[in-house]
Amino acid sequence: MPRAHETELTELTEFTAAYDAVLARWPRPTTAAELRTPHGTTHVLRHGPEDAPPVLLLPGGGSTAASWGATAAVLGATHRVHAVDLVGGPGRSRSDGRPIRTAADLVTWLDAVLDGLGLTSAAFLGHSYGGWIALRYALTAPDRTDRLVLLDPTGCFAGFKPAYLLRALPLLLRPSAARAASLLAWETGGADHDPAVRRLDVLAAERPTRRPVTGPRPTPAELAALRPPALLLLAGGSRVHDPDRVAARARATVPGIVTETHPAATHHTLPADLPPAALSGIAGFLAR
Question: CA-CA distance, 247 to 283, in Å (whole number)?
Answer without folding.
Answer: 20
